[in-house]
């Protein structure tokens, strides 16, 4: 069973006047089949955690460990992490002009699976996955994320999640900017992947709204670069009513 | 290359300059005689991007012809291939040389090659012209004449090593269709400077595809003039500029006739230290050219540090009675965020780079519309990328 273990993770970014520490000792264990919601105010370091796990070069790990089934994730390059089963659905997916969605998906699936998917079954697989997410088939021939609306970008991220079948899925504010219909479609996609029991999910969100559709096993409140409180789903209800104020006071970073 | 050889006005380290439009006609000497042009020194608008010391004397009269460039023409039935003297009346009809190197070529060539397609002849096979350098210095002259309502595709392949200055003329009869593909697949030691001048007849269509991969220095000057209304010109270009290469494409479209169209799309990728691409797109819409429709585009993709691009679109309009006129120039870097996104989906860095470059060129390659050539170009682009990864 895949287990992602984050221990005492410290991460800095380059800023004017030297490195600035964003993550200040994060401890978290996510097992296959579990869903963890990470909630917190803006600037608490949620997205930094997501990008650090995926290996974005902007973020410097200054301390701590991240392992996937005992393997040192921090020693892996970005593509190695993805092939090891770590998937990041990005808050702001990047436009890649000139690369069609169909070409991108197939290249990616080939890399992740270690061999090119059989063309006939692959075409069907993509088509069905797109239908489930209400993605217009014409998208296959469009350039990756180019001219996509916010909702289309997010659906495209979840399409990749469904096709690439990671062991650990990190969803970075996948709910932001979505209307209710899009949120429902995206959540259904995430739930289909969760229901396989094969993925551990780290659901990063600012709002409790998405938790009506995706039920977490555990909720963690992120503040000032670390987990300030952990609990069951009831913790989300408390946040819904009281907001983050109790966590922001005296300690949160400004960004 | 030492720092002092970087031409004034250029930018370095993968930076980008998009120039301000200047008057397309400024300094426009046009003459068949090299003596009418002063020797350029590098500060002239026409020459400021070109490293003159790498022209091997083509610009200052010191490059003596030694031969060593083999030209072979293979043509299907319906095509006449001739080697003619300087006095042949078909020479120089498309237009005069407009810079000293082109005038030097015009003043120095001994024999010209004329390829003619009789009127109303529709070729089903391309005419193939192979220009192969064997290390010498040569001045060339090529005429391609397509009669009224004829249709032809001509592929000119440049390979090997040479120092070559040349003029190529395209005479396109009324209602005719000519597609010319000029491939600069030189060895990395070659120097090639040429003016391509197309005279487009009434309701005729001219499509030019310029593909530059090789050479130490390649400087091409495709020009279009319209002999009568209704002409259409499509100019496509693709270049892949590597380590130390200077590849310069200077286009001029002279809309002096009503109701003509032009469309220009050039795309280039650059990689490696001192790779330098220059694109100048001059379009002039003269007062008489009512109903003109023109668009020009240049896109560059900088893959590594140390490469530089100078891209100068220049549109000058003397009449408001036109259908449309526009230009676009953009130079982008293969960005770290794009690389991260692709790698975060398991795709290794070199494969990600290939994916993006293939994608960058794909649309242009499709527009060319010659399937056999498309495959060759894609293979060549792959090879260029492999070389960079290795």
UniProtKB/TrEMBL annotation, chain A:
Q: Which Pfam family is one of those matched by this entry?
A: ABC_tran
Q: Which domain of life is it from?
A: Bacteria
Q: Which UniProt keywords apply?
A: ATP-binding, Nucleotide-binding
Care to name a GO molecular-function term for this sequence?
Answer: ATP hydrolysis activity
Q: What are the ABC transporter domain coordinates in residue numbering?
A: 4-249
Keyword Cell membrane listed? The answer is: no
Q: Which residues cross the membrane?
A: none
The UniProt entry's sequence similarity note says: Belongs to the ABC transporter superfamily. Ycf16 family.
NCBIfam families (alphabetical): sufC
Name by which UniProt lists this protein: ABC transporter ATP-binding subunit
Species of origin: Streptomyces bingchenggensis (strain BCW-1)
TrEMBL record, chain B:
The scientific name of the source species is Streptomyces bingchenggensis (strain BCW-1)
The UniProt entry's sequence similarity note says: Belongs to the iron-sulfur cluster assembly SufBD family.
Q: Which PANTHER family match?
A: PROTEIN ABCI7, CHLOROPLASTIC (PTHR43575)
UniProt-recorded name of the protein:
SUF system FeS cluster assembly SufBD core domain-containing protein
Q: GO terms for biological process?
A: iron-sulfur cluster assembly
- Pfam families assigned: SUFBD_core
InterPro entries for the chain: Fe-S_cluster_assembly_SufBD, SUF_FeS_clus_asmbl_SufBD_core, SUF_FeS_clus_asmbl_SufBD_sf, SUF_FeS_clus_asmbl_SufD
Q: Which residues form a coiled coil?
A: none
The signal peptide stretch is none
- Which segments constitute the SUF system FeS cluster assembly SufBD core domain? 133-360
